[in-house]
From TrEMBL:
Residues 483-503 are annotated as: Disordered. Signal peptide: none annotated. This is Carboxylic ester hydrolase. Belongs to the type-B carboxylesterase/lipase family.
Length: 503
């Protein structure tokens, strides 16, 4: 069987071709993080001598098994610690050099993979004339457990270090696939977007990318003390006491690691919404809060597209609910964000499921994204968007929920069949507009294209592009709500219900 062959620093790779796009799947960008490499920083992959087949996706990081059809398209991937693989779609002709778009998937840092069908890169690569790269990274306890305080060479933010290893691989090898290492744009959604916020602030990621697109996620981290408490609780589940021998972590079955992590999460948060696995602020990898670091210019010169969906929270809150549920959600949100008592701000929202959804949308997604835009626009051009597209009558997509924009960005509307949706010409037009804007940004550092003028976001007019039936620019959308959220942050209450996990 023949296919396109590419040279890398580690050996030759033979891929496949589809609709004029060369595709390489399951490329190892780091050594398998197993045994003595478990819970440690990623290491370079071993080279190979013969031509390596790269036609099939690699295994995905251990995560809760997907039983539906939307995440992995009804297929069952291989779940493994040996998961550090990336995938490349290239439409480049001989001698052509194209910009590169590296996708970081979301999934609350516990689910997902670069091989998910909705991230299939053929259409984006072909229509946008870009190289598309999707990456895996360690998830859950394997990728986001703050273990460096416990010695033994254990790492913190291992999942972020995996992303950096993938970007380093791209810098060293993407030219062999027709890509320009000087024009690498990161784009990601949810936890992938939160990862990008962290990468903007991480010293080890400096110089590895030239632009960023952040979809539905901003700076989100744990403080070191919180992370250490979570790590200690996890070790306790494994029978490792403070100051104990952590070498046991190298040999325990992965299933036991996952079981201990699940028990730890339940004991610390019960059934409440929580994000115990996420980036942590610590000196060796992420020395400062990303939002603060961005405000101080750490990402100077990196243009940014950032935005949210109109009804983000309605993915997580649906159906009927009570005031008791609202109060519990409020406490969970305080813990997730590490912020002070939100009770006064919550008075502006009804104590219903819809109120919970709106509050999560406004505070966790929209307001935090505006904060990043405000901080970065002083150091580089910033463009802001909002995705408002809905499908009336659909049980989920009648709202512009969290993640609803992804298939439009990748031009993978055929995946909408898993949601029982028949694609319309209007949906195709919206998808073309988003793909064209995203890939134009990768080409020129500006998302404006013919027929779609997109002004930069400034504090003067806060221009925001609304992706809806009528794509339009709105100055400072929901200004009253934005200023209320800003005022609450500038004048927080003195007492706090947020703090360490033990409080």
């Amino acid at each position: 069987m023949t296919g396109p062959v590419a040279d890398t620093l580690y050996g030759k790779l033979q891929g496949a071709q589809c609709d004029g796009v060369n595709i390489w799947r399951g490329i190892p960008f780091a050594a398998p993080p197993v045994g003595e490499l478990r819970f440690r920083a990623p290491q370079p992959p071993e080279p190979w001598s013969s031509v390596r087949e790269a036609r099939e996706f690699g295994p995905v990081s251990h995560q809760p098994v997907s039983t539906g059809s939307t995440r992995f398209g009804g297929t069952t991937p291989e779940y493994s610690e040996d998961c550090l693989y990336l995938n490349i779609w290239s439409p480049a002709a001989e001698g052509e050099v194209l910009p590169v778009m590296v996708w970081i998937h979301g999934g609350t840092f516990v689910t997902g993979a670069g091989s998910q069908p909705m991230f299939e890169g053929t259409h984006m690569a072909s229509k946008g004339k870009v190289i598309v790269v999707t990456v895996n990274y360690r998830l859950g306890p394997f990728g986001f457990m703050h273990l460096s305080p416990f010695g033994g060479g254990l790492a913190s933010n291992a999942g972020l270090l995996d992303q950096i290893a993938a970007l380093q691989w791209v810098q060293g090898n993407i030219a062999g696939f027709g890509g320009d290492p000087k024009r690498v744009t990161l784009f990601g959604e949810s936890a992938g977007s939160m990862s990008i916020a962290a990468l903007l602030a991480m010293p080890a990621a400096q110089g590895l990318f030239a632009g960023a697109i952040m979809q539905s996620g901003a700076a989100q981290t744990l403080k070191a003390q919180q992370g250490e408490e979570i790590g200690a609780a996890f070790l306790a589940e494994l029978g490792i006491r403070p100051g104990g021998d952590t070498t046991l972590l190298d040999t325990l079955p992965a299933e036991q690691i996952l079981k201990a992590a699940g028990a730890m999460v339940y004991k610390l948060s019960g059934n409440a919404m929580s994000m115990l696995f996420q980036p942590v602020i610590e000196p060796d990898t992420l020395p400062a809060d990303p939002a603060q670091a961005i405000a101080e210019g750490v990402a100077s010169g990196i243009p940014l597209v950032i935005g949210t969906n109109l009804h983000e929270g309605n993915l997580f809150f649906r159906g009927s609910g009570s005031a008791e549920n609202f109060d519990q959600s409020l406490q969970s949100l305080e813990m997730m964000m590490g912020v002070e008592n939100l009770a006064e701000l919550a008075l502006h929202y009804p104590k219903t499921v819809e109120g919970q959804a709106d509050f999560l949308t406004d505070l966790f997604f929209w307001d935090s994204s505006i904060s990043i835009a405000e901080r970065q626009h002083r150091y580089a051009p910033v463009w802001m968007y909002r995705f408002d597209w809905t499908i009336p009558g659909h049980p989920l997509l009648e709202k512009a929920v969290h993640g609803a924009e992804i298939c439009y960005v990748f031009n993978n509307l055929s995946h909408m069949a898993h949601y029982g949706v028949e694609v319309t010409p209007a949906m195709e037009s919206l998808s073309d507009a988003m793909l064209n804007a995203w890939t134009a940004f990768a080409h020129r550092g500006d998302p404006s294209v013919s027929g779609l003028s997109w002004p930069q976001y400034t504090l003067d007019d806060r221009a925001t592009l609304i992706f809806e039936q009528d794509i339009r620019i709105v100055a400072d959308p929901d200004r009253k709500k934005r200023t209320r959220l800003l005022s609450a942050q500038e004048n927080p209450p003195q007492d706090s219900s947020a703090g360490t996990l033990s409080e």
